[in-house]
Automatic annotation (TrEMBL):
Gene3D superfamilies: Histone deacetylase domain. The lineage of its organism: Eukaryota, Metazoa, Ecdysozoa, Nematoda, Chromadorea. This is Histone deacetylase domain-containing protein. GO terms for molecular function: histone deacetylase activity, hydrolytic mechanism. InterPro entries: HDACs, His_deacetylse_dom, His_deacetylse_dom_sf, Ureohydrolase_dom_sf. Pfam families: Hist_deacetyl.
Length: 488
């Protein structure tokens, strides 16, 4: 019998709110709307509620220096908060934010502790602010303290977990968590994220597939990967490595901004809500009743509420709508899977065997063996350096930098999401692919290669936006504005 589901939710975390900008996507209602949906659907009726708790300095320093704790605690006025954020990427704060961030950390630690102590089975911490971009003395990307990284470190350092897996499925790279966890051999870190060959934030080479150590990156270079394409990457790369690693538990950075028609619309990803439930089910198969999800991103309400609901159904071992795995993954994702197999075969025997089998299939079909690009493609040269310079000089935008969806775009996104929800089929089981069918998904033929090139054209949109900004003496883009004066 499955252990009781656990959760965290505390309205004190709604006090983290931007008070000097008219609109930001990371808003208090993100947590509230998810909680209310789970409550109204009865998913919390027999659950164990873990009380939110203020984290100690010793817990926070598992991922951050004491100096940043002291600096954040010292921010007493709104002006001080905004001045602080001019030298931080994509961040806003108010005088209550540091205290709320302590609650998020303490809650993440305690729900993991409750699982290790067998007081609960799977669980979901509906906390904010999010954390997976923050590390060292760099709160950024809406994140103050790194909730997941601290909880993971606490699990191995204090609770005695010998092998832990962290899965970050937010659409943005888990750069903060990676920097905290990357050298810890007790932890297998996975991040599936937008990359666009470096044309997408954080514009760093290291978030491509050729990461070293006990780390796996699934970098998306194309738009609108479906849940079937997305889960294929987990079946081909992540899960085989995880089985070889043999984790005792899984902590998820649960961001839903890769969801179908989140705020990036067609420029984003296409994972429909049931995909998150099915991913959690796969992770639960790996570590039964040892999966803890901690809320990160997701910014379009219809998407993130539905996605969190389906993920929670997965955590609770409830029925999920049927999904259909594609017979062939799209060309862009196919290239990523091949590149990941080619790279990780050097470290993981199970991947070496999978690569050999896939290459043998190429031969049997009369096709050339797959070969990664001889030169790594990276479109982000100078982008990161430019951001760093603006950040270090304290001239990043703190107001009116969010591109807001129009009313027509909001209506369209809601309509697209509602349309697939109407098609849910809870009565027919999802048919898992056989080992042979999985290999057939990644045949690398002329048609697949052409599809890859077409799908990856989206990279040029992000690249061209950057180049237009860099070439304009009065350029203004997102958090960057060349007219801003240095404050440091």
């Amino acid at each position: 019998m499955s252990k009781k589901f656990g959760f965290v939710y505390d309205e004190r975390m709604l006090a983290h709110e931007c008070l000097y900008d008219d609109f930001v996507y990371e808003r208090p209602e993100r947590a509230r709307l998810i909680y209310e949906r789970l409550r109204d659907e009865g998913l919390l009726d027999d659950a164990v509620k873990i009380s939110a708790r203020r984290a100690t300095d010793d817990e926070i320093t598992l991922a951050h220096p004491k100096s940043i704790i002291e600096e954040l605690d010292s921010l007493k006025s709104l002006d001080e908060c905004e001045d602080f954020c001019r030298s931080k990427e994509i961040l806003w704060l108010n005088p209550k934010s540091a205290e709320v961030a302590r609650l998020a950390v303490g809650s993440a630690v305690d729900i993991v502790k409750a699982n290790v102590e067998k007081k609960i089975g799977n669980g979901f911490a509906i906390v904010r602010p999010p954390g997976h971009h923050s590390y060292d003395d760099l709160p950024q990307g809406y994140c103050v303290y790194n909730n997941v990284a601290i909880a993971a470190k606490y699990a191995v350092e204090v609770l005695g977990v010998k092998r832990l897996m962290v899965v970050d499925f937010d659409v943005h790279a888990g750069n903060g968590s990676f920097n905290v966890l990357k050298d810890d051999d007790r932890i297998l870190f996975v991040s599936s994220h937008l990359h666009h060959y470096g044309a997408f934030w954080p514009h760093e080479r290291e978030f491509d597939c050729d990461v070293t150590g006990n780390n796996i990156f699934i970098p998306f270079n194309g738009a609108m990967n479906s849940e079937g394409d997305y889960l294929a990457a987990y079946h081909h790369v992540v899960l085989p490595i995880a089985r070889q690693f043999k984790p005792e538990m899984v902590i998820c950075s649960a961001g839903f901004d890769a969801g179908y028609f989140d705020v990036m619309l067609e420029d984003g990803q296409g994972i429909k809500a049931p995909g998150y439930g099915h991913l959690i089910r796969l992770l639960n198969d790996l570590c039964p009743d040892r999966v803890i999800a901690i809320f990160e991103g997701g910014y379009f309400p219809k998407n993130y509420v539905e996605s969190a609901y389906m993920m929670t159904r997965g955590l609770r071992h409830m029925s999920l709508p049927k999904i259909v795995y594609p017979k062939k993954v799209n060309g862009s994702m196919c290239e990523v899977i091949w590149d990941c197999l080619s790279h990780h075969a050097k470290r993981w025997t199970v991947i070496a065997e999978a690569l050999e089998k896939a290459q043998k299939q190429q031969e049997l079909l009369g096709l050339a063996k797959y070969a990664p690009r001889p030169t790594k493609l990276f479109l982000g040269d100078s982008f990161r350096e430019h951001i760093n310079e603006a950040r270090d000089e304290g001239r990043l935008n703190t107001r009116n930098w969010i591109p807001v969806l129009t009313d027509d775009q909001v209506i369209r996104a809601n309509t697209m999401i509602e349309a697939y929800i109407k098609e849910y089929n809870f009565y027919s089981p999802t048919v898992e692919l056989s080992a042979e069918e999985l290999v057939q998904q990644i045949v690398w033929d002329e048609k697949t290669q052409a599809d890859c090139h077409v799908r990856n054209v989206i990279c040029m949109k992000f690249y061209n936006e950057w180049m237009d900004y860099l070439q304009d003496d009065n350029g203004c883009m997102f958090i960057l504005n060349k007219k801003n004066k240095a404050t440091k």
